[in-house]
Each structure stands twice: as structure tokens, then as C-alpha cells.
Amino acid sequence: MKKITFVILSVLIVSCGKKKEEVSTAQEVSQTSVKASENNGEFDITKIPVSDKDLGVFPYLNPPENYCYGVCSNWKGAVEQKDIKDFDKEYFAVNGKLIPVEGKALKVVIEKNRSKDPVAFNSLLVEKAYEKAILDLGGVQVNNVSVAKEEIDRIGKENLMSATYGNSIDFNGLDRIKTYVIRTNSKEVWIQFSLLNEESGKITILEKAAAEVPKVEKITSSQMKKDINESGKAVLNINFDNNKATLTADGKIVADEILKLLNENPELKLSIEGHTDNNGTKEHNKKLSLDRATTIYTYLTDKGIKSDRLQTKGFGQDNPLAANDSDLNKAKNRRVELVKI
């Protein structure tokens, strides 16, 4: 299957007159679509023409020639699976209004590869390169106007910045947000970018989809005991605050089950061993995993479990259960193991 790659200058010079017609048509279609959707108070995807083009494979668009996604020294010419989230959310601008869309997403920085071309980042050329590629795939532009500060306040910067649900929104350039939609018979693909001339840009490519919510079974002391008897350890996915060692409310429920296990089996001694995925540095993850194991240790000893029955270890990202190549596998690797001593 194919991916789209751009050659900026040749496209612009050879087809300048034709391109003006394409851009004008796209803007007229997008304005009609947005106005029709506003009558219903929300965006109406059915107003977007269906494309019969073959999009290729996600994320469908590579950066323009002599540009790269992320740090150029690490760019290998194609998006790596680790940079794609199986399920995420982004706020996309439609006629100046922000609407949330969820699905498979790539959120990256666009940089100029100065080792191949020393000329500065050119936001106009990059914008036109993406525009041509998207229009060639049957895409429609749905935002080319400024997003009001009141709209940012309505959503909240916490959602847009801290949760990175506004990755492709430049808060210092709310008039530079460009949004497109490609609709096929089976897909709805959103593309949004903000570009800063002579610097860099950010882009989000998202294929809308519903979440495949995994089944969650309650972790019980009896199941822990069964696992320990059968394999010598129990593997637990305990919830901590993001990138911290503090237990969430759900995490405390699991810790209470560990407490129950130890109280019901007074002869049992455990090594509490923390593990992480590969987000962050190895040193950070090693410390985080030990800190999380220590949190469980402290929780149990504070409730009466003798310290000589417990020990802690932190392995960081060194012993994954699965390859860290998807959100689901990373969730498996973020765990605490109770190993019988």
C-alpha cells in the first residue's frame, strides 16, 4: 500500500495556476459544509463529499521533502508505531469552533531537516504541500479562520495543553490553525496543523473511531493467592496517578486486596516489584517503579503488616511483558508484581 510524500517546489512552480482553482474550490465546498452543519448546532460529516481515493495506510501523510516528524536526527523516513496512539482525542477547529474527535492518532512536531537543506522552515510552502496532498485525496478544508480566545477558555487550557488534546493548536497563533477532513466510505480522517515561519509546526492526524474498551475484572485476594500458588507471583495492574507514585482511588482498592491476602495468609512473604513502560528515560522509570513499589509497601505496613514480610524492587522498563509498540501493550507493562519470597 502507499504513503503520500510531497515535493514542494516542483508542485508549486509547475501547477501554480491550476492550484489556485483547486484551493478556491476546496474553500467553497468547506464553507458550504460548515454552514450546513451549523444549522444543526454541530458538525455534520454527511455534508462532506465522499472521496473514492485510496488513502494508503495510517497516518496517510509523510512530511514534505526535507522536513521530518519529530527530531530530524531520529527521523527514519517513516512514522514509527510507537509514535501512534491507538486511541486519543484532539480538539479540531471547524469554522472557528473547537469540537472533540476521538480515534487513532499521530501527534507530532514538524521540523526542517537542516542537514539536507539549510534554508529555514517555510510555513507557506509546508502549508501548500499539505493542502495539495490532502485535496488530491479528496479532503475538504473546514477551518481557515481564527479561533477566538473565548473558545479556548470554553474548552479549558488544562484539556488542550496538559492532556495534549490541543496538540495542533498554537495558542500564540490562533489565526494559523488549518483543519481538513477526508471522508471515505469507511473512514473519517481529520488533519490539523499550526505552522510558525522559520521555526517549526505541529500536526495531528486522527482517524475517527470508537474506543475498544477492554474488559476489566476485579482483582481479588483469592485470585492473587491462586496465581501465587500456581506461578509464584501475581501480576497486578495497579492504578497510580500519571507519572507519579501516588495511588488512585482504584489503586487503593487493589492495595486493600493485597492487605487482605497478607492477613489471610500470615506465613506469606512478598517481594513487591514495580515495572513501567518505556516512556521517559531508563533512569526515571527505574526510580518511578521503585517509588510505586514503596508506596504499596508503606500502605501495607501502615495498616499493620510487619515490615519483615515485605521487600521492594524497581525494574523500570527492563522486563516488559510485551513490546512497547502500542498503548495496550504499554498498559500491560505498567504493573506491580507480588513475588513469593
UniProtKB/TrEMBL annotation:
It comes from the Bacteria. Residues 227-341 form the OmpA-like domain. Keywords: Cell outer membrane, Cell projection, Cilium, Flagellum, Membrane. PROSITE patterns: OMPA_2, PROKAR_LIPOPROTEIN. One of its GO terms (cellular component) is cell outer membrane. Its main location: membrane. It is found in: Cell outer membrane. CDD domains: OmpA_C-like. This is Flagellar motor protein MotB.
